[in-house]
Each structure stands twice: as structure tokens, then as C-alpha cells.
Design a protein that fits this description.
The chain is an alpha/beta fold. It contains 13 helices and ten strands. The longest helix is centred in the C-terminal third of the chain and has 14 residues.
């Protein structure tokens, strides 16, 4: 394949719109709340969930050029970008946070990236934090010897990705009063909120500590649409210690949810969102008669 265009991308055969599954859960029903799962984890076997919605708009502009992107040692985004590169015949480079990782055996996530053809470049954490700085980015591109590349930010969250997530809100349409999504970099929430009909709102559950996402989501909507769109809010109480961190309570909840509903629960994002929704329901945050849609943005990797 010598280039990438929309015909190449549709050949990947995504399952869109993704299924909407109602789950019977007495813990929600006792409070008069109906729970739906928006199964974005079923869109594509390798470009899972919001990774399809966020990556494809950037890949559509590649035209055969290499794709350079960023992530941590266990980044689902890097895995999806590597898989997309293999499927579309695009060279991919992953800039990985943590210079110390270069001297260690690759973990299963990074090993899968390499197996899919991604070239890894490890950088120290200070450099990684400055990756959006033009001079730092230019130096990184020189270091990986890529002169003309499509640069996709960490998590895939750019204006194109936000516009790609508009369809998520449109697919939910009138089905739910509140649409909830776990947030890393905020791109999915920004697009989801913009795509929901009037009178519906989006709820973001950050999986990182810090309380910085409010400004990030606003900036993403500004870049994508020229200003704020839709109704949305964040509840940052449910990160369980930070990115990829867990607690016994979260593990127990996820295992119980899996047992109740036969759905494997991805721990970094999805478990925290579902845990938050149950806690909020028990706090009385939603009026009786509310229909909640929980966006399942990923699934556990083997």
C-alpha cells in the first residue's frame, strides 16, 4: 500500500454504529436508574473503542507518511496506533515516556507494538513532558530520523479526534439522558458532548490525578469547533490513586461486575467509570427515571 485514503480506512470494516446494550443491575434499578452500555469495544478487533474514533481522522490525512505518536509503557493508544500502521501499511514510531525502559525487557504491551512494526524511541520524563514544545518536538523528530510525518498527540486527542467523536454523541441520540466516559486526555469527552442532542449531557470520569482536564477539554473544543459545545462535567474523585493505579475496592467491583454481566472489564479506564457511576447513583446524583449510557472505550488486552 502506497498511501492511505478514506477508501483504505473503510476497508478495515468497523462495526458502526457500535451496539447499545441494556444491563439489568439491581443496584441501579433500586434507585430508578436504567444502565446502558455503549459497546465501543466492539467497533474493531484491534482498533478498540474510542481509539478507532480518535485515530482514524488523523490516519486519513497520512497519505503514506509515517505516523509519530506518544505514550507510556502500557499505553493502549500506542498499541492501537501500531496495529493501525500494520493494517494500513503505514510506518509508525512510538515515543515512549521513560528512558530507563530502554534497558529493560519489553513488557507485553510494548512487545505487541514492536510486533506490529512500530519503532520505539524512549525519552526521559522531563523531555516527554515538553513534547508539545515546538523545539522539543523538532528535536524528537530529528532523533527518530523522520522528516515528514503525521504527529498524533498522546492519547490521540487533537481537533481531528474530537470531531471524530461527534458521531458517538449522535449515535447515542435520544437513548440516554447522561452519557458517561472515562477520560485520559479529554478528547472523547469533548467530542461526545458536542455530538449529543440538546437536553442531554456528558459526564467525564478522569483516570489521572491532577484536576487539569477541565481546561484541556475546553481547549480541545475551541480547536475543533471554535468554542464550547454541549453540556458536560467532570467528577475527578474516582482515579483510585492515578493512571493505571487500582485499589482493592476497584478490583473487587470490577470482578463482581464481570460476574454479574459476563463482560470483561478493562481496568485502567472502564472499571473506574463504572465504579463512579454506581457510587454516584448511590449518592442520589441522578433523578429517578434517568437513563445512563456508559461508553465502554476498551477491553482488557491479553
Amino acid at each position: 500500500m502506497t498511501g492511505t485514503d478514506t477508501r483504505d480506512l473503510t476497508a478495515l470494516e468497523p462495526r458502526l454504529p457500535s451496539p447499545l446494550q441494556e444491563v439489568a443491575d439491581g443496584r441501579f434499578e433500586r434507585h430508578g436508574v436504567r444502565l446502558l452500555l455503549k459497546r465501543d469495544d466492539l467497533i474493531h478487533p484491534e482498533l478498540v473503542g474510542n481509539k478507532w474514533r480518535k485515530l482514524v481522522p488523523s490516519l486519513a490525512t497520512a497519505g503514506g507518511r509515517p505516523v509519530v505518536t506518544f505514550g507510556g509503557a502500557y499505553s493502549n493508544h500506542l498499541r492501537a496506533a501500531a496495529a493501525a500502521g500494520r493494517l494500513l501499511g503505514l510506518p509508525t514510531v512510538g515515543v515512549v515516556r521513560g528512558q530507563e525502559l530502554a534497558d529493560l525487557p519489553l513488557n507485553p504491551s510494548l512487545a505487541r507494538c514492536v510486533a506490529d512494526g512500530m519503532r520505539l524511541h524512549f525519552v526521559d520524563r522531563s523531555t516527554y513532558r515538553r513534547k508539545a514544545d515546538p523545539e522539543t518536538l523538532a528535536a524528537l523528530l530529528r532523533a527518530v530520523d523522520v522528516a515528514d510525518a503525521v504527529v498524533v498527540p498522546e492519547g490521540g486527542s487533537n481537533a481531528e479526534a474530537v470531531r471524530g467523536c461527534l458521531a458517538l454523541g449522535a449515535e447515542l441520540g435520544e437513548h440516554a439522558d447522561v452519557a458517561a466516559v472515562a477520560c485520559g486526555t479529554g478528547g472523547t469527552l469533548a467530542g461526545l458532548a458536542a455530538g449529543l442532542p440538546r437536553g442531554r449531557r456528558a459526564l467525564g470520569i478522569p483516570v489521572l490525578k491532577g484536576g487539569f482536564l477541565d481546561g484541556d477539554v475546553r481547549r480541545l473544543q475551541e480547536r475543533a469547533f471554535g468554542g464550547p459545545r454541549g453540556a458536560w462535567s467532570l467528577d475527578d474523585r474516582f482515579h483510585h490513586g492515578g493512571y493505571a493505579r487500582t485499589t482493592p475496592a476497584l478490583d473487587a467491583f470490577a470482578e463482581d461486575f464481570e460476574h454479574r454481566h459476563g463482560l470483561p472489564v478493562e481496568r485502567v479506564y472502564v472499571a473506574k467509570m463504572l465504579y463512579a457511576l454506581l457510587a454516584l447513583v448511590q449518592e442520589g446524583a441522578f433523578p429517578r427515571g434517568t437513563t445512563l449510557a456508559a461508553v465502554v472505550t476498551g477491553r482488557p488486552f491479553p
